[in-house]
Amino acid sequence: EAGVVQSPRYKIIEKKQPVAFWCNPISGHNTLYWYLQNLGQGPELLIRYENEEAVDDSQLPKDRFSAERLKGVDSTLKIQPAELGDSAVYLCASSFGRFNEQYFGPGTRLTVT
Amino acid sequence: TQLLEQSPQFLSIQEGENLTVYCNSSSVFSSLQWYRQEPGEGPVLLVTVVTGGEVKKLKRLTFQFGDARKDSSLHITAAQPGDTGLYLCAGDFGSGAGSYQLTFGKGTKLSVIP
Question: Does the pLDDT value for residue A11 go beyond 80?
């Protein structure tokens, strides 16, 4: 079974530029999550989707971040414009089942210069 | 936002030693998960505990859920260099029946020295 796929793995951009991350969850997993992870910290939820519906986006900075999950499968997370403080690892995860056990992708490491 | 504390934050031990890491909250978890994360990779699920007092074993790893479901521990026997990584606990503070409030701790960074 293929795992969660994310791309790109690394991205370096200048501040004020836009950036987008892509995630393909495990087939059959209806719930998809985007997390932000700073160095030495645990993942922090940005947004959670049930199929194509964003059911929890309370932690998403909506002035510059946006996300979509068209057709309830792949998802894209966008930042526009990026700020220096956005440098972090962006993790995508998917889950299926009663306890929402998370299956993570390898993450995208974003560096904003 | 529910708080979930992990301790210690860092742990460096010699190969063959035993260790325990802890995960605590002032609120009750409906379930709790432990993950291990290696550098450059996403976290990987190790175990889910649900019932107060539950003990689960995964080879040399023993996971325990507190009776009151507010705390959990992970004990590693005879640590190996391959156990090195960031150990994360994640508690679900939801009330069940489809609700969901999964919160990750900051993790314990374990280094096992050969």
Answer: yes
B34-62 per-position pLDDT tens digit: 999 999 999 999 999 999 999 999 999 99
Is residue B46 within 8 A of residue B37, CB to CB? The reply is no
Contact A106 B40 (CB under 8 A): yes
- Binary contact (A43, B100; C-beta < 8 A): no
Q: Kindly state the DSSP code that residue B26 receives in the 8-state scheme.
A: S
> From the list A43, A100, A106, which residue is nearest B41 (CB)?
A106
Under a CB-based contact definition with an 8 Å cutoff, are residues B30 and B48 in contact? Answer: no
Cα separation of A111 and A88, whole Å?
A: 7
Q: Do A104 and B44 make contact, defined as CB atoms within 8 angstroms?
A: yes
Structure-token pair, residue A61: 């900075």
DSSP per-residue codes, A43-82: -EEEEEEETTEEEE-TTS-TTTEEEE-GGGS-EEEEESS-
Tell me what pLDDT residue A37 has: 97
pLDDT at B9 (0 to 100): 96
Q: pLDDT digit string (tens) for B61-76?
A: 999 999 999 999 999 9
Mutate to test the interface with A, among B89, B93, B104 (most CBs of A within 10 A): B104
Q: Residue A44: is its pLDDT beyond 90?
A: yes
For B12, other C-beta atoms within 10 Å of its C-beta total 12
CA distance linking residue A49 with residue A55, whole number of Å = 6
Q: Measured between alpha carbons, how far is residue B114 from residues A104, B14, B16, B75, B111 in Å? A: 29, 6, 9, 19, 10
